[in-house]
Amino acid sequence: MKAILKLAIVLAVLLAASGCWDSKTIQNLAYVTALGLDYKDGRFMAYVQVLNFLNVARSDKFEIGKNVPAWIGKGEGKTANEALSSLYATSQIKLYWGHIKAIVCSEALLKNKKALRQAYDAINRYHEVRYNILLFGTKEDFSEILSQKSLLYLSPLDTIMDTPEETYEQRSSIEPQYGYKNIAELNEKGRTIILPTISITKQAWQEDKKEKAMFQIDGAFAMHEHRLTGWFSEDDLKGVRWFNKRSRRVFVNIPDNENPAGALVLSKPRHRIQPLIEQDKVRFNVSIKVRAAVEEMTENVSIKEMEEQAAQAVRAEIESSYRKGLATQTDLLNLFGEIYRNDPEAWHRLNEGNRLVLKEDTLNKIEVKVKINQTGKYKGRTLPE
């Protein structure tokens, strides 16, 4: 009886364990968290960032300020898939691609329409890669980008490259670009995609007296129908943020940056683009409504004056961004896309007739209304002298 009982226990253990024989423990996998893609002389270069999750997991053993190493691998091949697969030869352990949080593309790759399509197909075709990946462009060296740490030596997962939304909520400049949004917009006719560019600066932070490198979003590449139309600085793109209802906090000096009398935070802009088509000539009227809060005042200015000055500042930024794109025929404000979404028949007719061209008067009228609904504890006045 005892022998039968022992045999039953052994069989039960074996049956329970049989379903786990092919499983991998987490320490036996190399988790790719970021991917860099470059293209040179007809060949793809793939750079991967691999982190040890035991070093970045939040636990009782996690030490803030302790350096978290990032491993960087480089592969090369005639195709994007070959460049990625070549890393298997030296990775020692299995690479897992399901935790990629960011993909960074070089300017050389973005300039080559065919190479960009190949890389796009290879990455999105693979089943482990998700659609909520952040997308960036860069002009920096990939070794520098993928080895960059965060403030207080936090892991690369706590940087603008992997968690840009937290910074964007405090300072809404260039909206983060996600893979699923890119897929939705990539084939939309008349749509200009703004791909943020990530760079490294040593001008802002120090550890004691030692300069520390930190990420920043310094501008964006503009893409239209898989074609790179140019790079624009953050200042060039200031007018674009007023067409994004997700803009949470935008600082604006009034009346201008030269002699500011105060500072406002503008949020939740709402826009309307009205196409005017007259005998195949296309123009647009734009209206913007935005909320505001008073952050600082150096002079006593009435609420109405501040609203008018803020509206003038917003209008100037929109005009500036439009003119920055005019030189390269880059529709940064996505004016033509409004025709495609609301009147596709007219869009096809105008597009086939080469009438969708930006001109000095294409942006016809800009109407901006700013409503201040918060003035702080000082009720719209400066401190007493």
UniProtKB/TrEMBL annotation:
Whether Lipoprotein counts among this entry's keywords is yes
Q: Which keywords appear in this protein's UniProt record, sorted alphabetically?
A: Germination, Lipoprotein, Membrane, Palmitate, Signal
Its cellular-component GO annotations read: membrane
Localization, per the record, is: Membrane
GO BP field: spore germination
Give residue ranges for domain Spore germination protein N-terminal.
22-200
Gene3D superfamilies tied to this protein? Nutrient germinant receptor protein C, domain 3 (3.30.300.210)
Q: Which residues form the signal peptide?
A: 1-22
Q: How does it sit in the membrane?
A: Lipid-anchor
User: Per the record, a Pfam family?
Assistant: Spore_GerAC_N
Q: Does the keyword Membrane apply?
A: yes
Boundaries of every Spore germination GerAC-like C-terminal domain copy: 219-376
Similarity comment: family membership: Belongs to the GerABKC lipoprotein family.
Q: What is this protein called?
A: Ger(X)C family spore germination protein
Organism listed in the record: Paenibacillus arenilitoris
